Amino acid sequence: MIKRVVGFFGEEEFANQRRRLFYLVLVLIVIADLLVSREHAEYMWDWLPGWSAAYGFLSCVLLIFVSKFLGHQGGLMRREDHYD
Amino acid sequence: MTDFVHPALLFILGALPIPLLKGAIRKAYLLLIPLLAILAVLAMQPGSYGAAQFFGQEIMIAKVDKLSIVFATVFTIMALVGMVYALHLTRAGQHVAAFVYVGSALGVVFAGDYLTLYLFWEGMAFASAYLVFAQGGRQAVAAGFRYLMVHITGGVVLLGGVILHGFASGSLLFGPIEGVMGIAAYLILAGFLLNAAVPPLNAWLTDAYPEATVTGAVFMSAFTTKTAVYVLARAFPGTELLVWLGTAMALYGVIYAVLENDCRRLLAYHIVSQVGYMVVGVGIGTEMAVNGATGHAFAHILYKALLFMGAGAVIYVTGRRKLTELGGLYKTMPLTVALYMIGAFAISAFPFFSGFVTKSMVVAAAGQDHRAMVVLALTMASSGTFLHTGLKLPYYMFFGTDRGLEAREPPRNMLVAMGMAAVLCIVIGVFPQLLYALLPYPVDFQPYTGVHVTESLGVLMFTALGFVLFLRSLDPENTISLDTDWFYRKGARVFMWIAEKPLARYEKAVSDVSETTALPFLRGAARVGMRVDLTGVDAVVNGVARLILRGGGALRRLQTGVVTHYVLAMIVGVIAATVVFAVAWR
User: Fold this and answer.
1) CB atoms near residue B148 (< 10 Å)
2) To the nearest whole angstrom, how far is the Cα of A18 from the nearest Cα of chain B?
3) CA B234 to each of CA A52, B67, B228, B405: distance values in angstroms, whole numbers, following the listed order
4) CA dihedral B412, B414, B416, B417 (to 10 degrees)
5) Please, what sign has the CA dihedral across residues B482, B485, B491, B496?
6) From the list A2, A50, A68, which residue is nearest B338 (CB)?
7) Cα B493 to Cα A83, A84, B414, B486, distances in angstroms
8) Contact flag A71-B258 (C-beta cutoff 8 Å)
């Protein structure tokens, strides 16, 4: 059972099913976020349905590119024998 | 004393018979001691134990309250899980070191005064360093040596702060540091922050943990940083500086994790990031925030150990540690994948996993304290956490390019240990009240509200979307990353160069002088000297020489050439000098 579940995420033959499932989940989350009640919202953005999705995506992209920029242009990434 | 058995003693004294036991008896014994320790913690009553006088100072070996009990609970549970994971090791050394390490961590957690705390603090550093040295090889020994040096330096800073604090306040009892922060408080804080791996004092962690043994790293991931969180929560709750250090730390860890190619070093950067949440919680200092920091430490120890166990299993089976050399293992290690992913969901704070009920308590506490920037930064760090431990690492380690590695599931004891941690990650997520009951303050927090669930899932799943879209940008690269360890790794070399060049020039000048002027004079003197020498002095000299030779032979046996032994000798010397000074002073 576990082997099959793990296999679903690895095998090439399930690639299309995986993709469809993934996009379905994304849509469902946004819909749920629109429907959910917002009584105790603290900040401005808490009132905005779908805010967390946008912020999550933005964070992810920002982290990837800022880090890689610091790594390559900022000189943080070095050859493995740097200290030898 | 019947209602209090010090669990630190159980572990430290319990370590002594390990080398004498063999086979199944040793295995049973290795599990028995952590089990007894768990019982000892469960049976514990709040109060103060082991009060004594030491050189006129009040000593409190153990002070038990809710804060120390919650840390001791997770430490002893973790000791059991870690021992199950390490059960297949045949050599006793690592077991002994792990026992002393856990015992020392528990000693810190119950320490009622700074001297007891300091003693166990150093015990932790030495015992854990052994877990790095035990890996063997040039790289590990060098990393272990750096680890030890950094911690000894931190220990000296802490001791300096403690002594100053003792002189100023007249008491060495360990508690909240009140009033205006003086130099003593800052030194103590620096010592604590070093062990909490707060940047720029973080590099020892990410340098040494990935070099430790497979089983040793699991122990290390749990204890050192979390004892530091404990002492911070005890001594510095509500210190504004910690809020900002913690926030920076949470992001620092995830930024470095993007660049990392070594699987356990990536996880180590996530320790830095996760401990950031706890440091923020301590810094905010409200009841809810300290609860959040404590609860998150509890959950973190279990899921981080699970992640280290998963990565360790891969290293154990394949002998490889770089993401550029791993991939396609899901076919042969499906159980490891599944168990690792439970840890990944827990650290990423998916609903029904432990991180969801603890991390959000810290973030909510920051929200209640009207710190919008902190909330946004911590949410961004959460996105990064899932990006690396939940997506990047498993993708390149277990899925991704199939490298055709020959692999199998790890030994059963490793899988059982991972299973134990995984069950706890889920139990805490599904029944948070069990954990909330342990926290130092009453909990008034409901993680499972509709908004919180959809918002968390939104952040996480759209992070996954970013991962899918920009996968190629995340491909691991065969590099290492510069961190603050650069200063002592390269800096030491610059220092040596400066020392060597002028020294070499000076030496040459001296030898030039001696050759042109001193030598002829010396030759003449030598001829006279020889006559005297041959007749009278020889006999005396021979006698003395024999004596020196014998003495030298005895001394030579003390020289092992292992730097740690010398360091140990120095520490013993320092302690001896302190004792002599204290006695003479009285």
Assistant:
1) 23
2) 12
3) 34, 8, 10, 48
4) 160
5) negative
6) A2
7) 10, 11, 41, 10
8) yes
pLDDT at B50: 81
Instruction: Determine how β-strand B57-64 pairs with β-strand A77-78.
Output: unpaired
Q: Which residues contact B529 (CB under 8 A, 6 or more apart)?
A: none
Cβ-nearest to A61 among B334, B464, B466: B466
CA distance B280 to B274: 10
**C-alpha closest to that of A25 among B556, B552, B460:** B460
- Look-up of token digits 């979390």: B226
Question: Do B381 and B254 contact (CB within 8 A), yes or no?
Answer: yes
DSSP B112-168: -BHHHHHHHHHHHHHHHHHHHHTT-SHHHHHHHHHHHHHHHHHHHHHHHHHHHHHHH
Nearest CB among B399, B453, B477 relative to A77 is that of B477
How many contacts (CB atoms, under 8 Å) link A and B? 156
Q: What is the pLDDT of residues B82-102, one digit of tens each?
A: 999 999 999 999 999 999 999
CA atoms in the 13 A half-sphere facing the CB of B420: 18
H-assigned helices in B43-91: 66-85
* Residue labelled with tokens 């009207």: B370
Q: Is the pTM of this model over 0.90?
A: no
User: Distance between CA atoms of B238 and B359, rounded to whole angstroms?
Assistant: 18
Q: Identify from B463, B474, B493 which residue to disrupt to test chain A contact, counting A C-beta atoms within 10 A and taking the largest count.
A: B463
> From the candidates A67, A68, A72, A84, which should be mutated to test the interface with B, based on the most B CB atoms within 10 A?
A67
Residues 204-223 of B with CB under 8 A from A: none
pLDDT tens sequence across B346-369: 999 999 999 999 999 999 999 999
Place of tokens 């001394």: B555
* Beta strands per DSSP E along B247-400: none
Record: contact A78-B474, CB cut-off 8 A: no
How many other C-beta atoms are found inside a 10 Å radius of the C-beta of residue B106?
Answer: 31
Classified as helix, coil or strand, B179 is coil
Nearest CA in chain B to A64: B258
Distance between CA atoms of residues A48 and A39, nearest Å: 12
Tokens 């319990």 found at: B14
Contact B124, B97 (CB under 8 A): no
The DSSP H or E segment spanning B51 is strand B47-54
Q: State phi, psi for B511 to the nearest 5 degrees.
A: -70, -30
Which chain B residues contact residue A8 at CB under 8 A? none
pLDDT tens profile B136-152? 999 999 999 999 999 99
Of B255, B455, B459, the CB nearest to A66: B255
Cα–Cα dist B490/B578, whole Å: 33
- Check residues B432 and B559 and name the one with the higher pLDDT: B432
A24-80 per-position pLDDT tens digit: 999 999 999 888 877 766 777 777 888 999 999 999 999 999 999 999 998 888 888
Q: Which residues of A touch B478 (CB under 8 A)?
A: 80
* Nearest-CB residue to B463 (from A6, A46, A56): A56
Contact A76 B450 (CB under 8 A): no
- For B394, counting Cβ atoms within 10 Å of its Cβ (0-12 exposed, 13-18 middle, 19+ buried), the class is buried
